[in-house]
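Example record used in the benchmark description.
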Amino acid sequence: MIALDTNILARAIAAEIDVDAATKAQSKRAQALLSSGRQLFVSVTVIEELEWVLRGGYVMPVVVPYSSSASTYGVHHGSNFERD
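Model output (structure tokens):
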């Protein structure tokens, strides 16, 4: 099982404009990992930090990010992302 950190999730979720080639490549790799079908682990702390980063750094509104992530990626008991 792969444990994800905040940076990987932020790269996969945030739509960044005017970024360098390395950042675009990281974003593509992060999105590919999330849609790979592999079993992934995300700690509650990472979910909380991701919400803080998206709200503060990317000025995204708080729309219960945990619930939307949970339903999108099949989070069970607040810790595992499993994509079917």
